[in-house]
Every structure is written in structure tokens, then in C-alpha cells.
Write a structure and sequence with these properties.
This protein is an alpha/beta fold. It has eight helices and seven strands, in the order βαβαβαβαβαβαααβ. The longest helix is centred in the middle third of the chain and has 28 residues.
């Protein structure tokens, strides 16, 4: 198995794609830390995975909370090898124009969806240093390449995540830490099930692979980027979106 003897942290792993990331890492031998704000959901996932899986409550928008997460992982497991920065506000988010969205909401949104990846990486990178290196995947989105409309701050936060990934690759590379991003397109999750079917039909009709993706397909990409198979890849954003975004 690809991740035997590895310690992996997955933020926002209490549901959706993040939960699948955690389950798949555990299935391939990793000790998984479910870093989640929702205590009930996070503990559920840890309990269902079983074994050495551990739930740690974290608010990724709070640097002190991220530092506490890293301290817990060091104390319990001695360090960390892998990190997926998945936590984000998406389900139930407001869809308002940038010119009129409540600024307190906007600032909190960006703190979670953009700054959170930096805060967690800053806290966890020293643990990877102690193990001789590691690998990180940031959760981006196809929305990063399709700006505009109500709720555009979601795509803006993910565009920032792509830039953060490229910038951190330069800083982390000399420390033997690789960092890449996965940009999912429309994926079947509980959040997507709340979207009107006619809207989904309109989206997938414009995709070369005309269907929703699965959380396992996102995990296939993320785990590849974390693995030694991707040992010469860093600073990249991989669109896993059925061809929605076509870049040349």
C-alpha cells in the first residue's frame, strides 16, 4: 500500500470529498487525522475508519487553532507526512455580488477558503521537516477558472489557492515538501444533491464527459499527487472536472 507508516492530516474531512480523502488514505495504509470543525461529523468519520484514525477539532481560519492541531499530531503521532487542505465553506454558502456582500461574511469566507490553507500549512510544515519532507494537496475548484456572478468570492478564493500553491512550492521545495492542488468540477456530494436538477443538467451538458464526478475520482487524483508516483511534480493545479476547464 502506498501510504504505509505515513501520518496524513485531512482538513474538513467530516463529510463530502474530504471524508472520501480520509477513508481512501486509511485504506492505503495511512494513519489519518480528521481535522474538522464539526465535532459530531469528525468523530463519526474517525470512529468509522477505526484503527489509529483520530479526530482533532480545528478552525482553519484561526492560526492558533491550526497550531494546536499540529501540536496534537506531534504529541500523538510524532509528526506528519501528508496534508490535504480541504476545509472550505461551500454547502449553504451565500450567493451575493462582490459589491454588496456583507464584509464580515466575506472576510470569514476568505479566511476559511483561502487563508486556511496557508495557516494549516504553516503549522504542519515543521512536522514534515522533522520527518525529512512530505507532500501537500490543496483543494481548489474549477470555479477558479470561471469568474463572475453571485458568489464569485468562492472562485476568487480558489484562484488564490492556485496562486498560493505555486508560491509555496518555491518555499517548500528546498525542504523536500511538494505541494499541488486538485480542482474538482461538479462532483456528486450531499451539497450537490441540494442543487436543482435542471441546473446540474445545464452544467454537465457543456462538459466533454457529461456527468457529475465522484468523490472517489477526486481522491484518485489527490492520492496520486501525494504519492511517490508524483515525486517530480510540485506547484501544479490539476483539474478533475470532466473537461469543463480546457487549458492550452
Amino acid at each position: 500500500m502506498r501510504f504505509n507508516d505515513k501520518v496524513a492530516i485531512v482538513t474538513g474531512a467530516g463529510q463530502g470529498i474530504g471524508e472520501t480523502y480520509a477513508r481512501r488514505l486509511a485504506a492505503e495504509g495511512a494513519t489519518v487525522v480528521i481535522a474538522e470543525l464539526n465535532e459530531a461529523q469528525g468523530q463519526r468519520v474517525a470512529d468509522e475508519i477505526g484503527g489509529t484514525a483520530r479526530f482533532v477539532k480545528v478552525d482553519v481560519s484561526d492560526p492558533a487553532s491550526c497550531d494546536a492541531l499540529a501540536a496534537d499530531v506531534r504529541n500523538v503521532f510524532g509528526g506528519a507526512d501528508l496534508l490535504i487542505n480541504n476545509a472550505a465553506i461551500f454547502a449553504g454558502m451565500r450567493y451575493e455580488p462582490l459589491l454588496s456582500v456583507d464584509l464580515d461574511y466575506y472576510m470569514k469566507f476568505m479566511a476559511v477558503n483561502f487563508h486556511g490553507a496557508l495557516f494549516v500549512t504553516r503549522a504542519v510544515a515543521p512536522l514534515m521537516d522533522e520527518r525529512g519532507g512530505g507532500a501537500i494537496v490543496n483543494q481548489s475548484s474549477a470555479a477558479a477558472f470561471n469568474m463572475g456572478g453571485p458568489g464569485a468570492y468562492y472562485g476568487l478564493s480558489k484562484l488564490g489557492t492556485n496562486g498560493l500553491t505555486a508560491a509555496l512550492a518555491v518555499e517548500l521545495g528546498p525542504r523536500n515538501i511538494r505541494i499541488n492542488a486538485v480542482a474538482p468540477g461538479p462532483t456528486l456530494t450531499d451539497a450537490m444533491r441540494q442543487v436543482d436538477e435542471s441546473i446540474i443538467a445545464g452544467i454537465v451538458s457543456q462538459m466533454p464527459i457529461s456527468r457529475l464526478g465522484t468523490t472517489d475520482e477526486q481522491a484518485d487524483a489527490a492520492l496520486f499527487l501525494l504519492s511517490e508516483d508524483a515525486r517530480f511534480i510540485t506547484g501544479q493545479t490539476l483539474c478533475v472536472d470532466g473537461g469543463m476547464i480546457r487549458r492550452v
